[in-house]
Amino acid sequence: PQRTPRPFDRDRDGVVCSEGSGIILLESLDSARKRGVPILGEIIGFSTVSDPKSIANPDVDSIELCMREALNDASIQPQQIDYINAHATATVQGDVAESAAIYKLFGNKTPASSFKGHLGHTLAASGSLELCVLVGMLDRQCLIPTLNLDNVDESCKSIQHVKLLQTAKLQTAIKNNFALGGVNSSIVIRSYQND
After folding, report:
1. Which percentage of the chain shows pLDDT scores above 70?
2. Which of 18, 58, 2, 27 is CA-nearest to residue 182?
């Protein structure tokens, strides 16, 4: 059980469901400053795209459009993203489609990883729980690898996979969540320099 799930790996054997929760407190900058609390990050862009073509098969173009619209909402270019938190659930269709969409928009220069190997798929909680981890990465200036990624699937090799825990200069990241029925969302978060 410690060797699964295996996002992006040629020996993946599918989704492993888990449980969890995550809470991110959102408030205005003025309110946080007035309260004198540390600000861990700021949301600068968001997009959601519905793709009803298939209930179960993800679409590369729809995934790429979702990420692109989140970047447009943030008024930034793909090269300004320092890290991509992939949704990657260790399914063949999902991992391959997301890899292709990431490559289409970002090429192979931006590091990407999935937290599903560490956490399993917490279903409705995955977005908020994984966003908590991502905020922690920005705060600690590190990249968390995709756990259990030993042999990258040939169909997923086009992107830059994070395979080892490492320090990195991170300012801006994008987090993906893609659900059954073509309900896609991407959020862009930037670290915040407290005064």
Report:
1. 99
2. 58
